[in-house]
Structure formats: C-alpha cells, structure tokens
Fold this protein.
Amino acid sequence: MTVDIKLEKFSGPLDLLLHLIKSQEMDICDIRIVEITEQYLTIIDQMKQLDLDVAGEFLVMAAQLIHIKSRMLLPVSEELAEEEGEDPRAELVKRLLEYQRYKQAAQLFDRLPQLERDIFLPQGSGTDLLLEDAPQDAELTISLYQLANAFHQLMTQVKTEVFHEVIRENLSVSDYIAMISRRLTEHSRICLRDFFQSGYQRTELVVTFLALLELTRMRMIRIEQVNSFSDIWLTRVASADQLQQLHLAEETLDYE
Amino acid sequence: MSDLKAVIEAFLFVAGFPVSLDKLADLTEADKADIKEVIAGLTQEYSRPGRGIRLLEVAGGYQFRSDPTLAPWLRRLQKERVQRLSAAALETLAIIAYRQPVTRAEIEYLRGVDSGGVLKTLLERHLLRILGKKDIPGRPLLYGTSRYFLELFGLKDLNDLPTLKEFSALDPELAEALPLEPSDQ
C-alpha cells in the first residue's frame, strides 16, 4: 500500500499512530500490532529516503512497536507473563487512549471563543489597572517568571560599554533600600520602570533589584502587575513612618 | 443605593479586566446579593439581540466583551495578525489544564515528544504559571495554567473546563521514572 503522509503534520509519534489506527478502522484496545508496525515503519522509511530528518521520538516509537510485536510472537511462558503483565500492548494502549483524550481536549479548546480571535476587549484602556483585586499577601501578584523576565528586558536595554575605567563601586543593598524607601515615602506607588533610569550600571540594576526583593520580603512593599506586558507597580504596604524607621545593618542582609 | 446598576455598569466598563464580586462589593459598599442581582439584570440586557457587547463571567470576575459573531468586523481593527496557537501548543495546554500541577517529563510522556519549546512559547504567552517544584529527585518544575489562560478562553474557573470522557488515568510515577520509555524495561 502507498502511504502518503507528511510527518510534520503530526505533533508526535502517538499522533501518527492514532491516525494509522483510525484509518485502518481498528479498535485502539485491540491493535493489530503487526499491521500497524509495518505501516509505521514504512512511513519512517519513506521519510528517510526523502532525506528528511526523522525526529528521534518517532524512532523510539518504532523500536517500541517492534519490541511489542516480538513479544506478541513469542510463546508466553508463565514466568514472563507474571513479570511483564499479560498483554504487551497494554502500556501503549493506555498511552494512546490518554493521548487521544488530550488531543480531543485541544480540539475543544480550539473551538472555544478566544480573545483576539473571536472576542475583543477595549483597546489600550489606560485605566488604573491596580483596581484589580490582588489576594492580600497570599502570594506575589506576578509570578517569578514574569519578574525575572521584566528584569531581563531591563538588562538588555543597558548598553555594554566597550572602554571604561574600572572603578570598584561599593554599592550596598541597604543604601538602595533606604533610597527606595525614601521615594516610596513620597509616593505610595511607583512604576518599576521609573527605578531603572538609563544611566544605571549593571551592578546598580542588580542591587536595586535585590533591594526591591528584600523590601517585598520584609512586607514593606508589594509588587503588582495586572495584565501581561503591562507595567509592574510597587506599592507601599507599610506606613511611611515604618519605612523611614527602617534601619538596616548590612550584615543582617547577608549580601557582600 | 438606587443607581447601583449604573455604578456597576460604569465600573465594569472602565475597569476593562474581569472584576470580581468581592471587588465590586468593596467598591460599591453594596450587598453581594444585590450586586449579583444587578449583574444578572445587566447580563440579560446586554444579551438582547442587536447589542454588540456582552457581559460575561470570566476568570472569577465580570467583564464586558464583544459579541463573538462580530469577530469578522472587529478583526479589521487588528494591526497585525494574531499568532494562533499551534496544535502542539493546544495539546500541551490541554494536558496542563487537566492535569495540573504537572512536570515537563509527565507532559512529554503523555505527548511522546520533547515539549521544551512548546512550554517556552506558552510561558511567553503568559498562559502558564510555575506552581513550584515537585518533591522528587531533580526537583522538576510543576506547571499549571495562569489566570490569563482563563481569560483567553473565556472560562469562569478551572471547573469550567470542557468535561472529557472518563477513563483510567495513567500512573504519573511511571512517567517520572521512565520518560518516553516503555514501562517494561
């Protein structure tokens, strides 16, 4: 039989296998393993002949199919049956069934009305996004990944100088905590971006970032972001007095 | 409050994001039962034929959203084509949505393919959240869906996910021990 299948159409070996089973009108729970293995290998071979790079996962599945096939052909001794379970196909069947379930779920998702595709929201509404309820102190409102991402973006914005005099700067986290505290005493809320002016050196950025994390840990400020890509805001949680009285000995912070 | 309905309508309109019942109660200082009633009324008013906006319950809050049937018109406003989620991305998202918290090895066992790239894409599109680390050797990251995931698909919460046919689940420990490998080795 001729097989005309584009491998890239399939998201993986399970997807391809499922397709073969369906097109042969087989029952997933009762796969004719010899037939399927043959077809599967034909497709993989074709891909190789066309000099296409067959992803390793497809080869792993080929090996598994052959393994199952060989076990089905061998007479089953009682010992072996006990050791390896009754039907050598069982494991594969389970995986196929579960995979099929998520494939169907993916199709269901695709049919749900999606933002920016089927449903739209007012664009660029410049409202105070912090109206959104943040679960108080339960967790940071933004994830660590987002915070690290925002920091990474800032770092890439900082130009690397080619020539410069090397001066060892002695930046202390507590100085920066004091500086941030001062600014937050004046304004109860500051955009994260405002802390990183263009003149900042890499070390200054790092120390500022550490100071922000430290303040968050001490529950003096809260870090919030409402929408993806929107600005990250620092909000003062402690009273202005508390912040001002915050005297930190460098050694309590564990930074060098 | 006699104009509670008008106030809530304006709040939801201006906020733009899904506003929770708790937040509305905070803002309006009204009784939650009253607010619920008002929202039910508003929802009904906006669902009448001839309106272009719907009031929907999304991601634990209420939000004004455009009517899906108007999508062909509203797409004209888009400056660039929005990248659709690929089949692989949807598949991965489905696995995470229904099985969270889940590790990358578990996802790859279920899909039969390397899923690092897809996971990165989903993280970058803010559809995933890292829920922590699994307490097994290697301490792999545990993935779950984000709040934005609910917003993107217009789901109220995770219980609002489409129900799937039941069947016997795989032993997740198997996936962890032998990713991409048959179990009988």
The beta strands of chain B are 53-58, 61-66, 102-103, 128-133, 141-145. The CA atoms of residues 21 and 61 of chain B lie 6 Å apart.
